[in-house]
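To the wet lab folks,

You asked to see what we're planning to order before we commit. Fair enough. Below is the target structure as tokens, and below that is the sequence we designed to fit it. If anything looks off to you, flag it before the synthesis order goes out.
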């Protein structure tokens, strides 16, 4: 097969949910957040349970670390115009499902929404984006910080340390030149390949545990079915896009032809009126056009 390692979107459906493979996800999250992350559990719900052959190609898992922080990791291959809305819903759902009735709001845990997308989302040429909520004064332009009591109680300084932090990885924007550990991970996410010189945390474990040739016969058959289905799906998407572009081009060409035909008919009318002695100004009033438009139509 083209890939030397299992694709990340397949692995996250099954392989990376296994506690024995937490070190791979821990490495990825540690590199992304630039701090050591240790996973306590994979938190399952009706919204993110594994379904290998689900028609939807949206994959997400909710990870809880030893400090109680939640990491919502989502992998998306299909283009969705409302994906940012989905991100907002996902973090809200992750919080609400973990808050028991009667709990104080300070029991709400910090959520990191990590979104790995394989399509053009938004307009921007970077491949890793960070989104946080900062409150800035509209008059003073200073950033709102927590009160002294809040700082002492929660041991943090700013509201964004409580509110959801978003990471958006636009994998296809990466130029395949790995300059740092995060780039090495992005390279792997994009190409399903781990180069021998890569040293990023978690990649050595991924290199060993995510080899295609280490899969059982049954697992490999399922994986090959998944890859085949993805190729068909992508081909269908590409064909739909090509058809839409072709149809739009056809409609534009037809509209242009109709416009040129109407302009030619109008030119005949103007020239006929001129032959009968009407001035350009009189014709303009009669057919509700400006003098400039009349002259443009007849080529003066």
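Sequence we intend to order:
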């Amino acid at each position: 097969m083209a890939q030397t390692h299992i694709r990340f979107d397949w692995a996250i459906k099954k392989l990376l949910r296994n506690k024995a493979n937490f070190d791979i996800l821990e490495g990825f999250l540690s590199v992304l957040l630039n701090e050591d992350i240790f996973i306590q559990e994979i938190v399952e719900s009706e919204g993110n349970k594994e379904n290998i052959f689900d028609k939807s190609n949206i994959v997400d898992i909710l990870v809880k670390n030893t400090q109680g922080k939640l990491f919502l990791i989502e992998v998306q291959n299909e283009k969705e115009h409302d994906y940012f809305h989905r991100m907002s819903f996902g973090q809200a759902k992750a919080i609400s499902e973990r808050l028991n009735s009667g709990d104080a709001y300070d029991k709400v845990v910090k959520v990191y929404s990590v979104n790995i997308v394989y399509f053009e989302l938004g307009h921007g040429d970077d491949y890793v984006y960070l989104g946080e909520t900062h409150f800035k004064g509209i008059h003073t332009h200073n950033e709102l910080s927590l009160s002294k009591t809040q700082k002492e109680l929660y041991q943090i300084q700013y509201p964004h340390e409580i509110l959801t932090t978003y990471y958006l990885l636009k994998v296809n924007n990466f130029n395949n030149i790995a300059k740092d550990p995060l780039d090495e991970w992005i390279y792997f996410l994009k190409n399903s390949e781990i180069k021998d010189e890569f040293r990023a945390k978690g990649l050595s474990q991924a290199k060993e545990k995510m080899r295609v040739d280490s899969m059982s016969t049954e697992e490999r058959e399922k994986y090959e079915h998944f890859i085949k289905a993805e190729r068909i799906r992508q081909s269908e998407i590409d064909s739909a896009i090509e058809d839409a572009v072709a149809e739009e081009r056809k409609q534009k060409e037809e509209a242009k032809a109709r416009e040129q035909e109407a302009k030619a008919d109008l030119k005949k009318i103007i020239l006929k009126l001129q032959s009968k002695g009407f001035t350009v100004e009189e014709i303009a009033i009669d057919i509700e056009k400006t003098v400039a438009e009349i002259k443009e139509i007849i080529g003066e």
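Structural context that might help your review: The chain has nine helices and six strands. The longest strand covers residues 58-65.

Thanks,
Computational group
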